[in-house]
Amino acid sequence: MNSPRRTTLRITGDTPRRRGEDRGRQARAGITRAWQVYEELFATVAAGNARTLDVPALALRTVRATRAWAPELVAEMEGVAEGAGMPFWTIAALNARTEILAEAGAPRTGECSTLVLGGPRTTGGQCWDWHQELADAWHLQTVTGDAQGFAGITEHGILAKIGVNEAGVGVLFNILGHADDAATGVPVHLVARQVLGTAGSFAEAVGMLTGAPVSASTVITVVTADRAASVELAPAGSAVVAPDDRGRLVRTNHFLTQALAAGELRGRREPETYDRHRLLTERLLTHDDGLGTDAAEAAATSGPDASDGAAPGPDALDPDALAGLLTAHQDDGAEVCCHAPAEGRLGNRWATLATVAVDPAERRLMVHDGGPCSAGPETWTPLTAPRR
After folding, report:
1. Residue 388 clears pLDDT 50, i.e. is over it
2. pTM of the predicted model as reported, rounded to 2 decimal places
3. What pairs with residue 170 in β-bridges?
């Protein structure tokens, strides 16, 4: 079963500020611990790259960009700071941790792999890989009071990350790297929060993402009951990547669109992202081909609404099937399921902290605390997006 330390925060409030205050009060101890690790991480990475960071100034620079794009997100962060009893800039820095680490020159080895399988019942999921020292710094959550209620996982003090909302809009998350990445725009975690809290459809989510003025790169994969696409975001612009003609979509940590790949940073530094992408593409193809003719014909004729409220069809990725596909280590040709070395220092001890499956038709996530190789039928925690 999931570790008893993993809590579910149920965030409520009829205004952004009140939702933030509720989050800050509930997660105060966790936010304090997370900030201590991030403060050390920022300094360690910057020093390793012979850089000096003014973290408060960088955080407040992203706040200015966010205020111009979605001021309610700033109000929510202000509420978190008040509820947690911390300076506002520290909460802003947590939400901009991707952007600040880009300024520090952080490598992103071993971070996140995503699979989506479209069809009558589009499903998907991912590994979330991050620093082992932050293994205690995340939680499950449900959030109500915004235009859309949503559920998901996130880090202490960060408004959102991976999740699904009551309209059945799911969000999966992979970091990318571009040569122009900096801490000047709207943080990518706040962009994900805005999608989860306000997008009522696939089109709304994609439109919101492509219009977001970000300054650090990521790919956010939008998954609804019958559609999916990943939106690559970078300082140089955005691009939408559709699944292949059989509904398969694999994302790791490099750009797939040619124009944005011209500024590729991550894949040049850590080409293992291509190995993970290649391995998972092959595995998903094998999974798809293994359906058999009868199953494929049934899926093709069932219609987009036929499985609503029912068990996933034969072409869907249920949590255990997802975990099987994602369970790959170095001996398999690529380290999708990441394990931290026993030795090492903060900044280079990566691990898969969570495995997440999303079923948008049910507005549901299934979360396993740890890597997919340790998942089993009894280890998944269900989360359903609440009605606002």
Report:
1. yes
2. 0.92
3. 164, 223
DSSP string, 230-251: EEEEETTEEEEE---TTSEEEE
Q: Does domain 113-384 have CATH number 3.60.60.10?
A: yes
Q: What is the pLDDT of residues 272-297, one digit of tens each?
A: 999 999 999 999 998 876 654 344 44
Q: What tokens were used for 222?
A: 């939008």
Closest CA to 154 of 132, 181, 173: 173
Residue 274: φ, ψ to 5°: -70, -35
Average pLDDT, the chain: 91
Angle made by CA atoms 222, 273, 51, in degrees to the nearest 5? 100
What angle in degrees, to the nearest 10, is found between the helix axes of 55-69 and 71-84?
Answer: 130
Which amino acid is located at 354 in the chain?
A
Classify the C-alpha dihedral 355-361-362-363 as positive or negative: positive
Q: Map out the domains of the chain as residue ranges.
A: 8-104, 113-384
Q: What angle do CA 203, 199, 119 make, to 5 degrees?
A: 50
The 10s digit of each residue's pLDDT in 132-159 is: 999 999 999 999 999 999 999 999 999 9
